[in-house]
């Protein structure tokens, strides 16, 4: 583990913690100034919780025996001075394995029995049912015990072919499986369906999660892995081996599960040491490695810099022995640098923009409110200073003017309240059109058509109807949100023109992210249905599982779309609502002051002193808010129109 990577991940964690502190400081400021509203408070609490739970997931995906586990050992676990996770010839890692650190529990391995494939629940929901998992405690002080416990992720068991078939792990028509039948007619299947490893490693403590996966066969049989776990990884390291070159099954994995479904992709051309030859000069070896890298980049349609040639095995060995020359030669430094310089900063950027989206507008609105009050105080100060030495008649005129302003303002607010009622009704309708009931209605249509035939043709037909209906629904929502925005914009404009409020324009609703998720699912379904291996009626088990995975993923997408719409709705009107409230109290204060001065002209000096003190206090508060804005790196999304 290099210092650079550790540093970068640690900095990322510090940044995240500082961000949480800044957001909490903002919340404290809202409470102190009496401007905290229950809805806003809830949003801030949710955001802090999301930031606390945020993890950077790195998935290692490849055909079996390309060296995924060896690379994980070399990158993260070389301090063990031996192989921590089992890596061996042939198929070794038998189930997807997530490695992370959760400080509230002691170190453990939890293993989900393969038989849970018969159950309806997803792996995600089974994670909450700890009783379903076999738990082995991890004794981190004993290397031998650790290695022995880790071996369980490679456990297999022999079962009759019918049992494997019933579990959806066997297909008579798959030629690759034929030579896996044992002499006694049984076949080996994974003992476990999924493994969770809680381990206190410095990088994992900083929020990194590693996902090790088994080869293609296992990828195909656990749709949840390919439909949600791999796409939700922040980056995928795709491994290839120098000795095999880029094979057909490597390309299947690349196209089916990675290329279009993950934003950050790295191809690692492993086992470079196979080309090392003491009888050849290094520059010749290096040219030939370079050629392989170029060919791989072309095949995978990746930029050249995203293909890295390394030897995971030699890197592990070099780290264990402290051999710097061998470590350098292994090339693993390039993977570590890529993670530190590109992957971690990209993750930080994503988090930053989601924070800006969530509360940037809110903090920006607080800044606007402060500026508004500041300019009101300055205005009043100017008016009152001009009054020094004047008589009561002049003050009387000022009072009349303030009262006339108040009445005019109240009229505007009255007509705005009618608009607000309409907006709120429209908003409710918009959210309902993304609710569970609407999704169930869309799902029911597709379910009816699939339940008639659990085949890929049935699946494709039913999914086309599902995606068509869902996309149509999203279009309708964008249109509807556009109409709501029209009303909101008009309200902002009116207050700007009539009462000098800041001219703001809330951003339009964008459901681009959930839509992209939907398109990803549609693409995966088409690929799944067009795959010759899946076009068999015997595959109904797989089709059923795949369909189940799709429904879960579609539900999550609708939930995301609903949450985004809700945030958008709230963020659209909140700044205006608080400006309206602030303006009202400013105007009332102004009338009160002028009244007092009218009754007793001696109050004037006192009031001027008060205003000077208030001005100083507001300037101090604005500093706090600006500090928060700088920390979240946000420019309020509600920009001025002009
Ligand atoms: N020569 C050489 N062998 C390697 C290298 N990396 C891994 N291997 C060997 O390749 C074999 C497979 O490595 P694993 O790490 O188990 O591969 P995997 O991709 O995790 O495979 P599965 O767990 O079966 O999916 C092991 O015997 C490793 O020792 C390398 O850089 N050079
Ligand atoms: Mg492995």
What does this structure look like?
The protein has 642 residues and is α/β, with parallel strands linked by helices. It has a domain at 350-631. The protein contains 21 helices and eleven strands. The protein has helices at residues 3-32, 38-53, 68-76, 123-126, 143-150, 161-166, 175-178, 202-205, 216-221, 223-229, 248-258, 282-300, 312-321, 324-330, 332-387, 392-432, 436-452, 456-499, 512-530, 540-599, 603-631, and strands spanning 56-61, 97-100, 108-113, 134-137, 156-160, 186-190, 192-198, 208-212, 235-241, 264-270, 307-309. Strands 4-3-7-2-8-1-9-10-11 form a nine-stranded mixed sheet, with helices on both faces. Strands 5-6 form a two-stranded antiparallel ribbon. The longest helix has 60 residues, at 540-599. Residues 635-642 have low confidence and may be disordered. Guanosine-5'-triphosphate binds next to helix 3 and helix 13. The site of guanosine-5'-triphosphate has 23 residues, from helix 3 and helix 13.
């Amino acid at each position: 583990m290099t210092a650079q990577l550790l540093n970068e991940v640690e900095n990322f964690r510090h940044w995240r913690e500082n961000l949480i502190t800044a957001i909490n400081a903002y919340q404290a400021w809202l409470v102190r100034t009496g401007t905290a509203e229950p809805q806003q408070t809830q949003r801030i609490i949710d955001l802090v919780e999301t930031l606390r739970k945020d993890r950077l997931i790195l998935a290692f995906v490849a055909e079996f025996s390309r060296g995924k586990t060896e690379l994980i050992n070399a990158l993260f676990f070389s301090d063990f001075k031996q192989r921590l996770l089992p890596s061996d010839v042939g198929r070794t890692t038998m189930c997807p394995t997530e490695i992370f650190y959760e400080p509230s529990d002691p170190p453990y391995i939890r293993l989900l029995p393969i038989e849970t494939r018969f159950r309806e629940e997803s792996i995600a929901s089974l994670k909450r049912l700890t009783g379903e998992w076999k738990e082995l405690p991890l004794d981190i002080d004993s290397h031998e015990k650790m290695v022995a416990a880790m071996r369980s992720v490679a456990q297999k068991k022999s079962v009759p072919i019918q049992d494997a078939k019933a579990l959806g792990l066997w297909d008579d028509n798959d030629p690759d499986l034929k030579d896996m039948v044992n002499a006694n007619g049984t076949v080996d299947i994974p003992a476990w369906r999924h493994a969770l490893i809680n381990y206190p490693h410095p990088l994992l403590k900083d929020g990194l999660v590693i996902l090790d996966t088994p080869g293609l066969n296992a990828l195909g049989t656990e749709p949840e892995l390919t439909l949600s776990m791999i796409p939700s990884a922040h980056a995928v390291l795709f491994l290839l081996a120098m000795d095999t070159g880029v094979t057909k099954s490597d390309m299947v994995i690349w196209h089916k599960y990675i290329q279009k479904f993950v934003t950050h992709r790295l191809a690692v051309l492993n086992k470079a040491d196979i080309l090392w030859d003491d009888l050849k000069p290094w520059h010749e070896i290096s040219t030939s490695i370079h050629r392989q890298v170029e060919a791989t980049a072309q095949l995978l349609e990746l930029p050249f810099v995203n293909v890295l040639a390394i030897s995971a095995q030699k890197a592990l060995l070099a780290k264990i022995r402290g051999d710097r020359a061998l470590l350098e030669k292994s090339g693993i430094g390039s993977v570590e640098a890529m993670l530190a310089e590109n992957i971690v900063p990209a993750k930080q950027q994503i988090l930053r923009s989601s924070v800006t989206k969530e509360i940037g507008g809110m903090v920006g609105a607080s800044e606007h409110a402060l500026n508004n009050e500041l300019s009101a105080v300055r205005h009043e100060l100017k008016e009152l200073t001009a009054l020094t030495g004047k008589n009561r008649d002049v003050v009387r005129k000022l009072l009349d003017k303030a009262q006339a302003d108040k009445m005019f303002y109240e009229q505007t607010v009255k007509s705005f309240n009618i608009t607000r009622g309409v907006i709120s009704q429209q908003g409710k309708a918009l959210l309902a059109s993304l609710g569970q009931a609407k999704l169930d209605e869309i799902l029911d249509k597709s379910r009816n058509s699939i339940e008639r035939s659990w085949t890929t043709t049935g699946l494709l037909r039913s999914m086309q109807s599902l995606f068509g209906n869902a996309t149509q629904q999203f279009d309708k929502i964008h249109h509807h949100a556009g109409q709501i925005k029209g009303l909101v914009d008009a309200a902002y404009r009116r207050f700007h023109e009539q009462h000098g409020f800041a001219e703001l324009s809330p951003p339009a609703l964008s459901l681009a992210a959930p839509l992209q998720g939907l398109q990803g699912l549609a693409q995966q379904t088409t690929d799944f249905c067009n795959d010759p291996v899946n076009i068999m009626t015997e595959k109904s088990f797989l089709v059923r599982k795949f369909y189940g995975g799709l429904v879960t993923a579609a539900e999550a997408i609708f939930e995301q779309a609903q949450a985004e719409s809700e945030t958008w709705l709230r963020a659209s009107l909140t700044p205006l609502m608080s400006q309206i409230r602030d303006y009202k109290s400013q105007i009332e204060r102004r009338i009160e002051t002028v009244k007092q001065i009218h009754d007793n002209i001696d109050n004037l000096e006192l009031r001027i002193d008060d205003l000077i003190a208030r001005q100083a206090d507001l300037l101090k508060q604005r500093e706090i808010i600006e500090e928060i804005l700088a920390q979240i790196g946000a420019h309020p999304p509600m920009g001025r129109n002009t």
